[in-house]
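User: Predict the complex with S-adenosyl-L-homocysteine.
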Amino acid sequence: MVLTLFSNGMLLTITNTAAPATDLGYLLHKNPARLQSFPLSFGQAHMFYPEASDERCTAALLLDVDPVGLVRGRRGPAGAGRTLEQYVNDRPYVASSFLSVAISRVLGSALAGRSKSRPELTETPLPLNAKLSVVPCRGGEGLLRRLFEPLGYEVLAERHPLDEAFPEWGDSSYYTVELRGRVPLKDLLTHIYVLIPVLDNEKHYWVGDDEVEKLLRHGGSWLPAHPEKEEITRRYLKYRYDLAREALARLLDDDLPDPDAAQQTHDQEEEAVEKTVNLNEQRLNTVVAVLKSAGAKRVLDLGCGEGKLLRALLADQIFEEIVGLDVSHRTLEIAGARLRLDRLPTRQQSRIKLIQGSLMYRDKRLAGYDAATVVEVIEHLDQARLAAFERVLFEFARPATVVVTTPNVEYNAVFADLPAGKFRHHDHRFEWTRGEFAAWARRIGQEHNYNFRLLPVGPEDTSLGAPTQMACFARA
Ligand code: SAH
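Assistant: Here is the predicted structure with S-adenosyl-L-homocysteine placed in the model:
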């Protein structure tokens, strides 16, 4: 049965081999014993189960796209004026955004990870295998792999010849694709939903702002960490660069997954606590002012995070060479995307460099700069290892100017939302009083031969001081 249907339309099958395998039916909200059909604006979708045993259960979604109805119902500016091409094209037979539409219409609950009778299974990784009968891979097998392999799938791809009767015509860009992985069903569906139209790179409907919402909704949890996120976003939004930019910015802003670092939510969390005073901006302005007054032109931003200070430095041509260092690769990637480094004019590009490294280890790349800034970083370091950092910066890198900022813990009492005794961010290892910070700065000055002055940043409370404390060191 599968074979006859196959030749008429596009087929997606999903096989579960975790016993009882027929739980797949509960997850898909579709009874394995029935064949069901669903009318869609562009044709019909059929759901059925070619096999359903305890050990192995396969669900099939067959799309029957109506080529004539397709043209009649066509929306958007590209519809008019084309004739034959509208009827003779690959749309009815390949996995395209039609498949995504069908998945969301027919399997919407499964896509959203809802299951009434097996709620615990929606998050459970299952041994799943998805086969797509005909996938147009514009970008080739390489792109296919770059899209799915980082998500943990084993990818099997078989390329179709252009025409079996004429092998000399060579290969087409169509593949039969198999994805094997141990993932929750909703993840598999979501990945297919987003990435098949990306592979196809041709959308049948007009791309508007709600596509951004869809992409954020379905890609929010995995796309920010995907190495091809920019290509995916561009293609998904059909090269509407304005939308792609917006989507990327919002993906990176709102939907960061946690695994590799608390740092990534750092901005939001700490900003939320500190928002009353727009402290972040004051801090950056003060740092820039200190650097300028010291005459620094070549500047290191250590623990640069997502690059807010880097952006301010880049905007001021007085800074000739700017280096952002951070321990987190992911954070640096985000910084690169935020600063749009790949799109800067060459002359600007040559002013800035992002490097990965740890402040715990002596690093030759840090030598020879006029100034180093360490903005809201030391409180993320284990106090026991602060000594290593001190030597790396003040003994080995030894720039003429060093600017260090850190929260003033006394001021936390002012933040109404912050429970007593809690730090401003869950990854902070310590927060110092003004006395503690001053003692630290004094010791650094003595041990490494730097003069220093302390500056409050942000609105000062008469008894508690300012929210941020800053130490500016000058090599003696
Ligand atoms: N300076 C930025 C980021 C502050 S968050 C800002 O003001 O917005 C602290 C940053 O320090 C994070 O990006 C984190 O990845 C980085 N960091 C933590 N430990 C580090 C280490 N040992 N070496 C280098 N960077 C580190």
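Residues 1-8, 70-88, 254-266 have pLDDT under 50 and may be disordered.
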